[in-house]
Design a protein that fits this description.
Strand content: 15-25%
Helix content: 25-40%
Largest sheet: 9 strands, mixed
Strand order of the largest sheet: 1-2-3-5-4-6-7-8-9
CATH class: Alpha Beta
Structural class: alpha/beta
Shape: globular
Number of helices: 7
Number of domains: 1
Number of strands: 9
Length: about 240
């Protein structure tokens, strides 16, 4: 479908034999440059457009730079619900997470699956990632295992696990997350790939990732900001690295 100069393609993707059905939408501008950015948010595909149907600021900024933008609905978000059995949370079975992937783990897998699919598209030569809102920290945790990404910009939404004494949102609850170092370890393990983390809480310790990027001879590839960042700035960094 073509609308306002954009080509809009709806797809359903998943891993063979795993039973996944991940709803995906790809927006491609009139003059694409072969680069694409995956948008990972808690509202899924709905965050590609405003209620009036126009592209959201980050989507518009990326499209204006010639990038296609991919949005998708992770588990229990948007169209990823089973219409025959809608649900907003995982089963409340006792010890469910002892024997099954957590909601956070399944959503991280959905992200990995969509990125792998995007990298396999014939007209795409580069894939980037922008994650924002309450699901942003999950993208950082997953980032070390996401292969083939160019640049990654993540809004941490002020979240940090701290010492583990505070309640953790279900969508960010991963067993043993603090045993391997939490967000600071994930950022460090991302080196030397370009990473911009913003909206970081005051408790987020940047010593680990800063040292990791320095040891990998890529200190300029890691950026950390405590405040919010404008959409155009994120798009410019994804596009040019500056």
């Amino acid at each position: 479908m073509t609308r306002d100069g954009l080509t809009i393609i709806h797809s359903v993707v998943g891993r063979r034999g795993k039973g996944e059905l991940i709803p995906v939408v790809r927006l491609t501008p009139g003059h694409p440059n072969g680069r694409s950015t995956v948008l990972f948010t808690l509202r899924g595909k709905a965050d590609l457009t405003t209620p009036e149907g126009a592209p959201t600021p980050i989507v518009k900024a990326l499209l204006d730079r010639g990038q296609s933008v991919i949005g998708f609905d992770p588990l229990l978000i948007g169209e990823s619900h089973d219409p025959a059995a809608p649900a907003t949370r995982r089963p409340s079975t006792l010890h469910f997470d002892c024997y099954n992937p957590t909601l956070a783990a399944d959503r991280a897998q959905d992200l990995a699956t969509v990125i792998s699919w995007a990298r396999a598209l014939a007209d795409i030569r580069e894939v980037n990632l922008v994650a924002s809102g309450p699901i942003g920290p999950l993208a950082l945790l997953a980032r070390p295992e996401l292969e083939g990404l160019s640049r990654t910009a993540i809004d941490l939404d002020g979240f940090d696990y701290g010492d583990g004494s505070k309640p953790v949102p279900t969508g960010l609850d991963l067993p043993g997350v603090l045993q391997f170092g939490g967000l600071k370890a994930a950022a460090a393990l991302t080196a030397p790939a370009p990473l911009w983390a913003f909206g970081a809480g005051e408790s987020f310790a940047d010593a680990w990732p800063t040292k990791a990027y320095t040891l990998s001879d890529s200190p300029a590839q890691f950026r950390l900001d405590r405040g919010t960042v404008e959409a155009e700035s994120v798009a410019k960094w994804i596009d040019l690295g500056e």
